[in-house]
Records
---
Amino acid sequence: MPSGHTVVAFDAELATLHRKIAEMGGLAEEQLIRAMEALVARDENLATSIIARDVDLDRNEAEIEALVVRVLALRQPMAKDLREVISALKISTNLERVGDFSSNCAKRVMALTQVPPTGPMKSLNRMGKTAATMVHDVVKAYVDEDYDLAMAVRARDAEVDAVYTSLFRELLTYMMESPQQITACTHLMFIAKNIERIGDHATNIAETVCFLVKGQIPDVERLKEDMSSFTVVSPRDQ
Amino acid sequence: MPSGHTVVAFDAELATLHRKIAEMGGLAEEQLIRAMEALVARDENLATSIIARDVDLDRNEAEIEALVVRVLALRQPMAKDLREVISALKISTNLERVGDFSSNCAKRVMALTQVPPTGPMKSLNRMGKTAATMVHDVVKAYVDEDYDLAMAVRARDAEVDAVYTSLFRELLTYMMESPQQITACTHLMFIAKNIERIGDHATNIAETVCFLVKGQIPDVERLKEDMSSFTVVSPRDQ
């Protein structure tokens, strides 16, 4: 049996894991929100600061992984405690990816400021905000162990996928209208794809929260992928 | 102290983890190679079979994760044994992503067969083969615990990134030449991006192998990202 001292130490470590994930989630969400601001405002300085800050998320992930390995080795947790630790590892990996995608959006803002503004910016911005809310809510679901909220986030991913597929089509038609818009629209397309991927990572985290709370991944198969990969638009469709 | 029986059972479970990762790696590599074949041959049937087979990789990942959780709970491994188990978890996540990207390439082949052939197919195919070799070699590095091979794979990622950045520019110029090529080139661009991401996942696995063998991630910072996100091409550059 573990001693009282060990139990207290373990609880403290789990609390630290929770806190670190919550902080990392807040930063990942903020990076995405700021990337959308930089995009709309064509703000190179803001974009630069987002790119520079991505290392903080990389460091967060490394710290959480080190703590997970330490807890597994020292405390040898079981059942729910073990799920806590595995979940922290998986969630941190997903949040780090959210950060990478936000940073990549910021890099593309740097390219976009060099060409005339174009494209369906409002839809793109709205899609970004939806994804940021998903990240916010899924981290809240993790902190509160709120299964229903996690499932709600997971359901919302279909909305992001649908907007992405429609944006993909729309951007293709913009590109066909004039070659001057191709570079800009290509970057906007990748920004949209980044946001769609952020939605996927929020969904992965939601499933991890379900695993944490109930011990298994939810059954209902969700429509996983956007349909843009199958999209064909020809110039005469416009 | 663990009993002899426990040690034997643990060794058998580690051997199973190794075998499952090796099999999963083989399948992920094969999916990518076949996706490139489908692309070059414009083969819809092959593309369909690749898309259908992606569930096998999803199942592999779920099985490995279940085994990891089981081993952690029952055997409470430490030191190198613990690294073995954590590494298996991380590698399976990365291989599953390799599968997703290969499957996404196959989906885009379905769209590409509906439009006239265009684009720098040879370079794209070569890039795909390089990434497939990276996946092959990094799984071999894992099986053989070959640190040097893992480091060599990691170094090769810069080559894939450079080809991607150059392909991105080239595809932009193709698109500017004629609106008829925009849909095709957009899908080719995302295929190139998928391959670039597969290179990143092979690199992640290489770093995990280094962590497994030496207990830490290699120090030397590698040039992480392709430069395409910053690329601007205007029609007059052609």
---
Amino acid sequence: MSTTTGALRDIRIQDSFWSDYIRLIRDVVIPYQWEALNDRIPDVEPSHAIQNLRIAAGEEEGSFYGMVFQDSDVAKWLEAVAYLLESEPDAELQRMADAVVDLIAKAQREDGYLNTYYQLKEPGNEWTNLCECHELYTAGHLIEGAVAYWHATGNTKILDVACKFADYIGTVFGPEPGQIHGYDGHQEIELALVRLYRATDEERYLQLSRYFLDERGRVPSFYDREHEARGHTHHWESDFMIKKKSYSQAHAPIREQQTAEGHAVRLVYMCAAMADIALESGDASLLKACRNLWNNIVTKQMYVTGAIGGMAQEESFTLDYDLPSDTAYAETCASIGLIFFAQRMLKLEPDSRYADVMERALYNTVLGSMSRDGKHFFYVNPLEVWPKACGVNHVYDHVKTVRQGWFGCACCPPNVARLLASLGQYIYMTNDSTVYTHLYIGGEADLMVGDNRITLKQHSELPWQGNVQLGIRTDAEKGAMFTLALRVPSWCTSMHILINGVPYMADIDNGYALIRRTWMDGDRIDLSIPMEVLRLKGHPLLRETGGKVAIQRGPLIYCLEETDNGEHLHRLYVGSFQAAETVFEQNVLGGVQVIRMEASRLSDENWNGELYASNVNSLFEPATATFIPYYAWANRGEGEMAVWVRER
Amino acid sequence: MSTTTGALRDIRIQDSFWSDYIRLIRDVVIPYQWEALNDRIPDVEPSHAIQNLRIAAGEEEGSFYGMVFQDSDVAKWLEAVAYLLESEPDAELQRMADAVVDLIAKAQREDGYLNTYYQLKEPGNEWTNLCECHELYTAGHLIEGAVAYWHATGNTKILDVACKFADYIGTVFGPEPGQIHGYDGHQEIELALVRLYRATDEERYLQLSRYFLDERGRVPSFYDREHEARGHTHHWESDFMIKKKSYSQAHAPIREQQTAEGHAVRLVYMCAAMADIALESGDASLLKACRNLWNNIVTKQMYVTGAIGGMAQEESFTLDYDLPSDTAYAETCASIGLIFFAQRMLKLEPDSRYADVMERALYNTVLGSMSRDGKHFFYVNPLEVWPKACGVNHVYDHVKTVRQGWFGCACCPPNVARLLASLGQYIYMTNDSTVYTHLYIGGEADLMVGDNRITLKQHSELPWQGNVQLGIRTDAEKGAMFTLALRVPSWCTSMHILINGVPYMADIDNGYALIRRTWMDGDRIDLSIPMEVLRLKGHPLLRETGGKVAIQRGPLIYCLEETDNGEHLHRLYVGSFQAAETVFEQNVLGGVQVIRMEASRLSDENWNGELYASNVNSLFEPATATFIPYYAWANRGEGEMAVWVRER
């Protein structure tokens, strides 16, 4: 049974909430990024990525500049462009991208190799430092971009580049004598090769992906072997990437890893590939490993915003129930990778808890990482910010209190671009008999369910109100028989369904309301999903959330900002939720639902200036707590912010 | 009016609590340190400090090893030995120390200069990097050690070394053309020169100390000038000490500094010198500056344990009300420096709030920094420890969960040794008409008050019970007229006084109960200081302490340990203090008063494995919270510890 999310060209998002963001990607982010890649943005760190390719292609003289994985920025840009072109043709944009494809092809070495860092800066040292130098990671992004661009435009030149490179990699790596028995320090090639397999039907790509996964974490360590072979040199300032195997999930074979360890982005990229291979091969041990890692992340190591990776140093997971709000790293790319992982798990076993996490990461961390102008981004997404301490107390050195224009390591902005440009692929999933609706995002989708081609039209008032209408269009005169599986979000207690105006009691299976019937053209489903203000608590083992609550309404996590609540947010204690007032304020942050509730503010009137005192009863003043959606924070200047709030 | 704390030889501590610790210093710490300085302790970082001196003295061949301030370890050892010898002669110990004096004298250069780092490793570069290289800091410790040793033993050779060095420094630094108009990056010379002035009555030492204080923070920066003059080199890996002027309190003239900034030890050493100069000179602007910095520290930047300097990076203060418990740096030396500062402020203006802080730092952070065996030490003194996260989450990399044998930068253990060896100097203070009792520590003290020589005999049950007896001995047949000023500790509501068995209502002035009368030989004062279990709260602006309480009884801050309370200490919420039970347990930690009280433990029974949930009421199980004194933590293996505890 094949499961598909549908091609982007068949899914047209028309949504009062999301269309603006996707428009931003097309009109602002992609052109801005193009300028950045060409070093035409003043006062930001130079990229040099296009120029590196030009030099490698022999079109210019010069030397390499940038990170070892600088090429990947071009590949991710190309991938995002591909999704935009697939959704909506644009001749000018395609002309630019075609020129990039030509450049990439020209830069490719005769044998298929392509990596401007090694070609220009360390020729002869290719494949000598997989642990640190992202060589296969960069190849993976090139392959992902190539597959997406070929898929969107039919450009076979870029697919040929990808195949030629992958084939070359297949000669270099593998179990045979004379081949390198190794893998990359940063997972990415693994999921890219699955995409190439799906595009070409060439089994060898699937096998190579599987080979990389299976090699990972074997003893003795490949990292140590290659380290010794190259004379114990290391690329970065410290050699911890080589020494600390868990940093890149190479401390144990992947099937034996029970907890999420190390660099968060690497882990979720690896998990996405594991799920891909499990789906393609039916490997039950891989599926089990995926479930273990998934469960560890979401039940012990995930922020309420869908962010993961709590530690700035090493951009890493730490240990179960260690989720500090203010020193959080919570990298944007890691939440994007978590969405990749969730989407693949849904294909393996449709269960709304995967979609719930996907929605949580999307509406909160990923959306919150980009400013409303599309030109500023967060790399780090803390759940609590005290601007006065940032820049003073060095534990906050990684925290930015406002979004930044660009980054020296610019992985996050292009990742947001390619995710939002391909958002259509996360909404629906179909197989022979069922159409799943994972996300309530408006638009039209042409879907194949079994032999039936249908069009599903969705109108959604999310995230502000839980009203959704779905309309079925089918040419089949006798209708189309299939199950419509509608996700019941975790944030609602019950979901009311009308079919053509008549109440319907659906069976709920793994978090989806199932409606199996012969659907006729013009059938209409009305969903009413209650959106209450939820008072979230953290698991008792979480040290950070004790005595505190977080506010959620619909898919959105809320936060307090200084702008609305004054400084010293920690003095605000929320009280009863009974009288919580939810108001859509058109003039706030482009229009958001604001939540106000009774609160108390800890007073210092009964303090005489001492820092500590006994026999002082806490004195509270009545106050109002005003919450805004977390994703919208830091759009009104710098100020304190907090997701977790004390309660009385 | 001269104020004195009395000579150590006149103060004999005989105290059921403290005598053991002082005995440890004599029997264990000082011999252990001597072995360390001579590189005879296996498996710890070598010191080489004595050998550096031998090489400089021409007694051995070899090269310098260690920190630029390695000599100061020998000087601090000598100072601690001096205090021990002054308190109780020991011919063998004195013989060893005399040999060290001979060695130091032999290592001194003809012109008076003495610093083995520069003499052996960078001859010719003396005085070219005051900002980073601790040259005057090292000189200061030598002078302090010399004065103490001369005072204890009458050894004039070491005083001559000190004077010759100080005189040489006086030719190098000063306002005249051709002199260096600068100061040291690490304050210490300033307070040392005041001690040398008091020992010799030579005004020029006082003037030089004052010169260094007055130069500090002038614009353009001395650091920048010397940096440029030596060709922009820097000694340490990073040049931040040069760039970040506030790190060493050189960002503004000292009288303009309103808040405690930068490296905590440097700040309090500077403040101690400022107070010294204010006392000697009557400089009101300096006294005002001392008060400003004192108030900022104790009302905005001090932990409840008397620790200061919350940030590991740069060992620094951060900003007002930023006192994280778990990432605290809270260096032992900084609390010792705070005690130095407090003692000097007491001389300037007797006020119990200075003595309260002195007591707080002494009984909690300083005492807690040393193990009960006298061979293990904390450099960092956190208020909350989660051992599982240490070594995993790098924000805790500076935290040790158990005391260590020695340190590469071994500033703290010798500092504890010299403080405890001189503890007698912190108990009393006399002037023409008053005897102040700052600390309730048992023993006998021969004191001059005006023209009267008296002996004050103290018996104290602190810190376990608030019973204190003071006995007066005087040879004066008609008695001695003076005021006995007895500190009323901040932790008691009232102090009951009996004089010769008769209740006495004393006037309270600046926190001291004043008893002015003609004291006769054999007069006896009984103090009863109620020791209730205090429920401390933190100022409402402290983010860390919201919703939490700390337990204090007498001078001791208490904490929870995993050994007594099980893991996950954060789940324990204390309830009513009414039924708090205080029991002296002879078998716990060598005998401590343990506090037990009703508590609730947050249960996870109503959790289904999710990390976040709405509509979950917090469920509590009855529990008992067992508190031990903070100073005694981590003496029973590794485990969680917490000072601040949630309350219900």
